[in-house]
Amino acid sequence: xxxxxxxxxxxxxxxxxxxxxxxxxxxxxxxxxxxxxxxxxxxxxxxxxxxxxxxxxxxxxxxxxxxxxxxxxxxxxxxxxxxxxxxxxxxxxxxxxxxxxxxxxxxxxxxxxxxxxxxxxxxxxxxxxxxxx
Length: 133
Hints:
single chain
């Protein structure tokens, strides 16, 4: 995108600008924290979606395959037990995959950061040793 940039001439004098620059350089510049702030919501939503859909269906299909040729008469109980076991295993695997995906997405977006920033002490607090402009 192309944001608008406005120049306000004479807003701060040279001395005030240099003071802010010096203070920022003393505190060290860091990468701006602008990348992928919503990863926790994405993780939660993806896990919830997977748990209600594919994980449930895969665990039921797997349980049916496991008990379809079982000669014992307890097919319903065995089906439920196998479905719960399958659900637990598949849920853990899918959650780990989703965590890996969201982590890699967050890391990939961090590399796209192009700006650096720092914070300055509260300029209105006289006890912080800051200059009043």
